[in-house]
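A sample copied in:

***
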Amino acid sequence: MSDASTTDGPNGPRSPLELLEVMAREEVVINEDLRHLEIYTMRGLLTILWQGPVDAEHVVLMSGGGMGGLLGPAGGLYHDLGVSFAEQGIGTLRVGYRKANDLVRCVHDVAAAADLASRAGGERFVTVGHSFGGAVAVQAGMVLGQHCAGIVTLSTQSAGCEDAGLLDAAVPVLLLHGDRDEILPPDTSAVVRMLIGHGDLEILPGAGHLLTEASEHLRSRLEDWIPTHLG
């Protein structure tokens, strides 16, 4: 994961944000709890929707599937969680990849978002990812190391999680998967849990890949689980 990790440059270590080699940045404050950032790089446009206090110590990093996206599954789950967490003083960064379905680059994008938040005060992070983004969430959690307070996967794929056993055993993991997933069977999340070596696996009855049928349960579950593990 060298593209997402801190590496040495001529003037010392370079952070994930510095490794993006940003050409320009645009930012619009949509309201007091939501900012839209566009970060231009030679390898694509990184988009971030930043909800909640910018200087929040506790931060949630959310990423989409193999086609990208910022809303999340289950009828805009990411937006609704961001609104709820903002009211609790928790920051949420929804990451729009520079190049969707490129695992190394997407993990770098999430790491750069964490780097951006850490410069403003972020110290503890929970990563959340849907489908392809589940592998991104797991890998990003590994990159964050001791700063990772938890990982949530939604209908995750197993590809990209082969080295997940390197994740610190102290990092809590929650894997949620519908039993009627038409793209990735729930056994996929079971494989990821096995690779990690720990975690809570919850199979959602009647839910497909987008988890729409479990939307209310997901909101309730994550509105409790994520703040609890952020501490």
Remarks:
- The chain has one domain: 7-230.
- The longest helix spans residues 103-120.
- Helices lie at 16-19, 73-86, 103-120, 132-144, 187-196, 215-230.
